[in-house]
Design goal:
Blueprint lengths: L1 H11 L13 E4 L4 E4 L8 E16 L7 E3 L2 E11 L3 E9 L2 H4 L5 E10 L5 E6 L6 E11 L6 E10 L34 E11 L2 E9 L17 E11 L2 E11 L4 E16 L2 E15 L2 E14 L3 E12 L16 E17 L2 E13 L5 H4 L4 E16 L1
Antiparallel strand pairs: 1-2, 3-4, 3-5, 3-21, 5-6, 6-9, 7-8, 9-10, 10-11, 11-12, 12-13, 13-14, 14-15, 15-16, 16-17, 17-18, 18-19, 19-20, 20-21
């Protein structure tokens, strides 16, 4: 285990990792991993931005739990904003997805994945749940300039949005956008809070550091239902973000979450970076640690992930390495006595994407990936040793911005 962690550190930290620099009239928004307008005196701004990423994926996996199915992960994000006076910029962020209708009823096939339940109350096992459809997020924010360089205060509220915890959500971070699979550690202290109910929060940016806090409702979404519930504020999160250089950023967070049947803590730390390699190649890298307590009848569980994305003019090579804890109970392996004992599992993914057609602000691509899953000896009967899985996909993604 220590050797694997050492490898992760060696991969991530030698590089002057990826650029978070924005123009003079913009500030970096970690929640969406993009630059957003900063109000400036005497300069009125109106902006409309559309961002999307969609896949059509054909999957196959070995073993008795492997499936051959076609699925369609997708998301579309619309931002509309306007400055108000000299110090305020109001923005409405709307995220939508059709995954409830583009995933199989038993979820997007993914060996060792867990989290949430379908419309019949059955847990997703060896499958990724669809994200809340059609409204994945709806956030109203006010970015207030403190009139000292790029220092600013952002206040936001959302019936459904992101709490201030975890790493950059996998669908927003550069090392995750090429991969149609959600991380296995998604619910183990990583980026599960990117869809939270009834969120109120703030982010104070002073120099190269951001201090974030939020209150939210800790009830997990019901991905099999079309809803937008409003709950009481019973949970809270803190996140600290520091930009060490224009190409290297790190963050850490802690959240206390009150769920209907338990109260738990989620902790995370992550680092992000970018390095230019010449000849139009750039290497993006992410390292993530997640930890959760009192989850699924287990006192604590941990997860590690390392991702890279090597981007060329038309070629993209990408990878995800995951080491995390699972229990027999979570994976529905009934013939094991100690159902709630955490055991380490691993998954190693290597993928390639090629841009077939490029257009202003976007591209249409063909890609594929393979994953080697490693399970402990006690899980081998359920998975028939260490299964391989593979996927081939089409992807369309892009961003368009209009300024008025």
């Amino acid at each position: 285990m220590i050797n694997l962690i050492s490898i992760f550190l060696i991969i991530v930290f030698p590089f002057n990792v990826w650029s978070f620099e924005c123009s003079e009239m913009q500030v970096y928004d970690a929640a969406m991993s993009m630059c957003m307008p900063l109000p400036m005196e005497g300069m009125h701004m109106k902006m409309l931005m559309l961002t999307g990423n969609a896949f059509m994926v054909g999957q196959a996996a070995e073993g008795p739990r492997g499936r051959r199915q076609i699925s369609g992960p997708n998301m579309l994000m619309l931002d509309a904003g306007s400055s108000l006076g000299n110090r305020h910029y109001l923005n409405l962020d709307f995220m939508t997805t059709a995954e409830l209708w583009t995933y199989p009823d038993n979820g997007y096939p993914e060996i060792l994945q867990i989290g949430e339940t379908n419309k019949n109350g059955h847990p997703y096992i060896d499958a990724q749940h669809p994200h809340s459809s059609p409204i994945m997020g709806l956030t109203l924010s006010d970015t207030i300039s403190l009139q000292n360089g790029k220092d600013h205060l952002k206040l936001f509220m959302a019936p459904r949005g992101e709490a201030t915890e975890g790493p950059i959500a996998f669908m927003h971070r550069p090392t995750g956008i090429a991969n149609p699979d959600a991380p296995l550690g998604h619910h183990i202290g990583q980026d599960v809070a990117h869809i939270s109910s009834t969120v109120i929060g703030s982010s104070l940016a002073l120099g190269t550091t951001q201090y974030q806090l939020s209150a939210f409702n800790g009830t997990e979404p019901k991905p099999g239902e079309v809803d937008l519930p409003i709950g009481r504020l019973n949970s809270g999160a803190l996140r600290l973000i520091h930009k060490f250089t224009p190409q290297f950023m790190a963050m850490a967070s802690a959240a206390y979450v009150q769920e209907p049947h338990t109260n738990l803590w989620r902790l995370s730390a992550s680092a992000y970076g970018e390095h230019g390699l010449g000849q139009n190649w750039r290497l993006y890298s992410t390292l993530i640690y997640g930890h959760i307590t009192d989850y699924d009848h287990v006192s604590e569980l941990s997860s590690f992930a390392q991702e890279f994305w090597l981007k060329g003019e038309c070629s993209r090579i990408w990878s995800r390495i995951e080491v995390l804890q699972r229990t027999a109970g979570q994976l529905d392996i009934p013939d094991i006595v100690d159902q709630d004992r955490p055991r380490w599992v691993e998954a190693f993914t290597l993928g390639y994407t090629h841009a077939l057609i490029t257009f202003t602000g976007g591209e249409f691509s063909l890609g594929g990936s393979v994953t080697k899953n490693l399970v402990p000896e006690s899980f081998e009967n359920a998975y028939r040793n260490d299964p391989w899985s593979a996927r081939v996909f089409l992807q369309i993604q892009g961003m368009k911005m209009w300024e008025f």
